[in-house]
Amino acid sequence: MIKHQCDESGGIYIHIPFCIRKCAYCDFYSVSDLSLMPGFVRALEREMAMRAAEFPDPCDTLYLGGGTPSVMTPTHVRRLIAAARCHFDLLPEAEITIEANPGTVSRRSLAEYRRAGVNRINFGVQSFRDDHLCFLGRIHSAQAAVQSLTWARQAGFDNMGLDLIYGLPGQSQAEWREALGRATEFRPEHLSCYMLTYEPGTPLDRRRTDGAFQPLEEARSGDLLDLTIGFLETHGYEQYEISNFARSEEFRSRHNQKYWAFAPYIGLGPSAHSFLPPRRFWTPRSVTEYLRAIDAGTAPTAGTETLTREQQIMEAVYLGLRTTGGISVATFEERFGLRFEATFGPVLARLRKDGLIRADADCCALSRKGMRFLDSVTSMLVCQEF
User: Fold this and answer.
1) Which end of the chain is more exposed for a tag (fewer CB within 10 A), N or C?
2) What is the topology classification, in CATH, of domain 309-383?
């Protein structure tokens, strides 16, 4: 029997699938026809009404992701926040985040987002070099990124995050150190540093397979991760997940932590996923299909699955190891009715010997060395019968 914790507040994710232009590396669902936006916002309001009964739990996060949510008008943002408060138990002190891309915001729009109730903003800066931004297919310049960050502070955002990408072809440690230094000059409360991945079917992956460039070697990308952890630590940032760093625990992404902690969340909009343990369901990866379902008065569900005990154990291991806090032994044992050391003992001994994990009676977490080998460590732990 699996026990699910019921005292964890839930989260609300809203997928805004509109982009001015899709980035070369991105495989998230998006469209460029902004004329659909007014009808889409109305559809989201209707979906919230449809889903409300499924998700009565108190929610302490609302996350507007994409796509590029910052192509929305402040009026649309205000309407979505109001609808979420109307249909869900969104707590007064909820963390309300909007993802924003430099080049799609203005001093005025940022100030109006803040007045609409957004209290956390996360910018997809990715790089402060124009040549890198061009390679990634971003629509903004380095100067636009600097301007957007300045405007956000002036608008009153005191919880601001930046996303950066490392591991570009030929990128040196000196270049990446310079990028991190540039980012920390703005003293963002949160930094996410993601290694560039080549997702199948993306323009960047096609260029790679055509031989247009040579990807950075895996070992060198691992060295850049090590550099990231050390550099940000000396600049006052605490790593709490493989790719995520915050100036203090207060500024960790409350919403994203739900994904790693098996907390419940509801996903709205096309291609959004929901998790009501142990059930997961998702919406169509198509604005057209999504709108058609809403117009027909039906909840737009494209698929659903109930996670088996084995699947839940595998996810608990993988997601727990992503965080620096690791897997809580007590929580794992209570949830699954398994003795952690007895279940994983021989593998734990080997991983300890290889210096890939830190494990004791309280938790099991990756070492800094182990962070390079998350997938391999996870595979070793879960390739057995439970």
Assistant:
1) N
2) Arc Repressor Mutant, subunit A (1.10.10)
Please give the radius of gyration of the chain, using alpha carbons only, rounded to the nearest integer. 21
Identify residue 282 by its one-letter amino acid code: W
Task: Please write the tens of the pLDDT for every residue from 256-278.
Answer: 999 999 999 999 999 999 999 99
Domain residue ranges of the chain, discontinuous segments joined by +: 10-261, 309-383
Characterize the bridge pairing of strands 120-126 and 160-166. Answer: parallel
Closest by Cα among 141, 140, 160 to 151: 160
pLDDT at 2: 52
**Three-state DSSP class for residue 248:** coil
Give the Cβ contact number of residue 89 at 10 Å. Answer: 16
Pairing of strands 363-366, 357-359: antiparallel
Instruction: Sort 59 into a burial class: Cβ within 10 Å, 0-12 / 13-18 / 19+.
Output: buried
Q: Please state the pTM of the whole predicted model.
A: 0.95
> Going by C-beta distance under 8 Å and a sequence separation of 6 or more, which residues neighbour residue 282?
267, 271, 272, 273, 274, 301, 302, 303, 304
Query: What residues are paired with 100 via a beta bridge?
Result: 123
Summarised one tens digit per residue, pLDDT across range 303-330 is 999 999 999 999 999 999 999 999 999 9
Tell me how far apart the alpha carbons of residues 353 and 289 are, in angstroms, rounded to a whole number.
52
Residues of the chain by 3-state class (helix, strand, coil), percent to 5 = 45, 20, 35
Q: Does domain 10-261 have CATH number 3.30.499.10?
A: no
Phi-psi region of 297 (alpha: psi -120 to 50; beta: other; left: phi over 0): left
Model pLDDT for residues 100-117, shown as the tens digit of each residue: 999 899 999 999 999 999
Cα–Cα distance, 178 to 278 (Å, whole number): 44
CB burial class (10 A; 0-12, 13-18, 19+) of residue 248?
exposed
